[in-house]
Amino acid sequence: MENKNTPFSPPSKNGKQKMFRFNFYWMYGLIFLLLVALYMSNDSVSSKELGWTEFQKLAEENTFEQMTVFNKRNVVEATVRKDKIEQVFGSNYDYQKLGNSPKIYVTIPSADKFSDFYDKAVSSNQISTKVRFEEGDDTIWSFIVSFGPMILLILVWIFLMRRMSGGAGSGPGSVFSVGRAKAQLFDKESDRKVTFKDVAGLAEAKQEVEEIVSFLKNPGKYTELGGKIPKGALLVGPPGTGKTLLAKAVAGEADVPFFSLSGSDFVEMFVGVGASRVRDLFRQAKEKAPCIVFIDEIDAVGRARGKNANMASNDERENTLNQLLTEMDGFGSNSGVIILAATNRADILDKALLRAGRFDRQIHVELPDLNERKEIFGVHLRPIKIDESVDAEFLARQTPGFSGADIANVCNEAALIAARKGKSFVQKEDFMNAVDRIVGGLEKRSCIMTEEERKSIATHEAGHATLSWLLEHANPLVKVTIVPRGKALGAAWYLPEERQITTKEQLQDEMCATLGGRAAEELFLGKISTGAANDLERVTKQAYAMVVYFGMSKRLPNLNYYDSTGQDWGFTKPYSEDTAKLIDSEVQQIIDEQYERAKEILSKHSDGHHQLAQVLLEREVIYSEDVEHIFGKRQWISRSQEILQLQEKANEKAAEEQAKASDNNDKQPTAATTEA
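RESULT FIELD:
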């Protein structure tokens, strides 16, 4: 067979010939060689080289107008007189190449010998040639001076071209790679540290994402029944609940490439960059399909279109969102690419982004309940040295409303507090101080107060503690202090009930307990202070919510003016001015009723309040045991205690059923007995 391979088309691995590819850098090399050749041939074009003997003869005949002696190079450069050009170069010389003042070069033995020759020629032949001596330079330096700037420009041009073409010099921060996606890739070879075992609680959310990972690992289990892999899942929930941690666990568990980036990575000041990064992200994802793409804080780019008055039709954020919508579910195929996103502001996302086909699942990651907080504490207590006084269940009860990030912060603060005190282990006291530090702020022991101010604060806090203990639906008291913390001059810690729904009576009791501080000041001190500003703010918002959102008003029953779509009714109110006055009147009436109720209860239990205030002045900190000693045992059981009791009963019942099942198994005859 004839060999068709040429030096310019070497055979490839699969037997096919590779086409000759022109490299643009060859042009730079060719230009460089031409410059060198031009420099080397420059002397031969505009000058002529003579021998020493011939030069002496011509010099004695006064042929040269001027001579320059280069000491370092031992070279003489001489300019030929106009009337002697034919004698030196002949009658056929070219004026265009040589010019009117051509030069000759001659290598001399030394500068001293040339000086002797010149002195002798001047004295004997009366020549008028001018002589100038110079140190001179070498050829390399002359070349650098002549062509150095041009070479530097070529090198800079090569560098810029490599950056623009995405060569080795183009990094993530390069202006020429501004249109590239900034996604971080995690694959099988990456060092993963987070798995589903590290994610405590979130049982339902973990089940949803575990199913996605299971689909990628074993798609046949689902496709046999006609199911399709979901295109996207959106994690929605308050800050700190573990949305990003859940995505990290997916990256650690999935055996497929995982791209991670933030929604703000698409936003750039240059026009068209966001859309370009979206295209580049999905191009990389398609190359590595099947894979998962995680976009954290997607609300940075997925905000609803047309809601912002400053948004024009060519807004960069809107163009980026349009490109994202097209890539997620457009005419192109993205099979094998799953989009996982997280946000805590789902109400402002564009409806087109939330529809099925783009985000098929919305996974709500809520604040953990009591049992989930216990599991989360179990995870974060693993690396901490604790003693037997630390109980995860007790800590979970003391941290209602805490997110996973808050619990991690509590454990870290407790370890820092114990280390500051020089302890070998972290104890229960350190965790309680950490909770106080996070909830109330740092203690300000250096804050100086007068005796009158301390009495006012003690009366105020004792009013809160008294009402919270005597009201059925108020949050149970844990701790009261008059030591300033953060911006508060006094603080009270309660154990909020983790309710699924809240009744009108429960809201009224909470408002009454909140107004207990101001009521105690007016009732027992005869004057009020600014210390109740935060209490009044909370009560006003709660009363307004009862009237406007929950429909718990007598004159405005069963009405709700809340817009769950996030549009907030635009620039107009959903009610008239007369209704607004009625709302204000109802809010004022609700607050007045609870304020008078608070004063009435405090008047009946004034002796207990005075005792509690006195203990606060003496000890500065009191606990629920002290309140129980003054007012007696609280009559009502808290909901958390009720739940724990129900859980204990359920556990006991399950244990009994398991014991009965084991007894029945023991009573069943074995196979050997039956055969006998």
